Amino acid sequence: MTPDERFMQEAISLARQGLGRTAPNPPVGAVVVRDATIVGSGYHPKAGQPHAEIHALQASGLKAKGSTLYVTLEPCNHYGRTPPCTDAIIASGISRVVVGTPDPNPVVAGKGIERLRGEGIEVLVGVEEARARELIRFYETWIRCNRPHVILKAAMSLDARIATDRGDSRWISSEESRAYVHEIRNEVDGILVGIGTVIADDPQLTCRIPGGRNPVRVIVDPKLRIPPDARCLGEDTLLITAKPPEGPGNITVGGPRVKVIPADHRGRIPWKDIFSTLGAMGMHAVLVEGGSATFSSLIQSSLVDEVMLFIAPKLFGGGIPLVNWGSPESVADALPLVITGLKSLGKDVLITARMGE
After folding, report:
1. CATH topology (fold) of 147-355
2. What is the mean pLDDT of each run of 10 residues along the chain (357 residues)?
3. Which of 60, 74, 244, 306 could covalently link to 103 via disulfide, CB atoms 3.0 to 4.6 Å apart?
4. Which CATH code fits 3-141?
5. Which of the following is catalytic: 5, 53, 119, 306?
6. Is 128 an annotated catalytic residue?
């Protein structure tokens, strides 16, 4: 491992502390290095607050002059809610900047790098780029597609059942798997379920990590059937419905927000419209934890970016399947997935994948 790779990995580790907290900005980390020693570090904690580069430069003080700045994402060169980071880098006397990956945002892309080089600063781009890109994959989907990065999560048996015929699903997955899900909830902007899951399971949909944050709870409820005492209702809940509330009903002061989106001819709210709405609200990533109907229709919509399957070493022999849209005519017609990761969680195995071509 080269020194540049080592210090970039430090910056990436810092950036992860901002996951789920920076939207509409991306998570970014930075370190200032002088004589092979980190003299300043920082990450972007929240939109509107100083960027990672500013925190790192402030921490390094006068030691920044002649030093190297490692930053996971190309520094901005425009005025937003904060001034351009390139101005601060130039003023600090930094002599070299190492960038993990260029910014996919066309407002920024290449302009920050060009500005720094124009001021005589050496700029190296693409160190630990795969890891730096993985860090901003939610942001990149939001920029390119105008919607959040959609992650479908399910716990299932070896024979792909998510519940018994009676609807019992507690607990298919191990304690380790359930703990890991809370880590994911801590990193996304929203957690989405359908009204069927709310009525059947009455979930809280919260993050139970000490010091963690709760994502926005998004409930897709076309006919506004949600029980008034549902545990998921609250100020951080967004109800998406096709039926405007006729009166106060469940919608009270301190209660959920409501977005009305027209249903299609089948009475369903189109997934494209749902995620466009969430994207316009600035959400970068949404974790979908619904049931079989939600999973089936969402996968068929071609809007799923990642799949997380927590597989328990159990056989049901029957029950509710993960998806149910009918058998393909041949194996060649099956929906392909590309596995991107395998992880052991207690007795379970987590398979992460993206949709294939």
Report:
1. Dihydrofolate Reductase, subunit A (3.40.430)
2. 96 95 94 97 93 96 96 88 89 97 91 95 97 96 96 94 82 92 94 90 88 91 90 88 63 66 90 96 93 88 94 93 86 91 96 87
3. 74
4. 3.40.140.10
5. 53
6. no
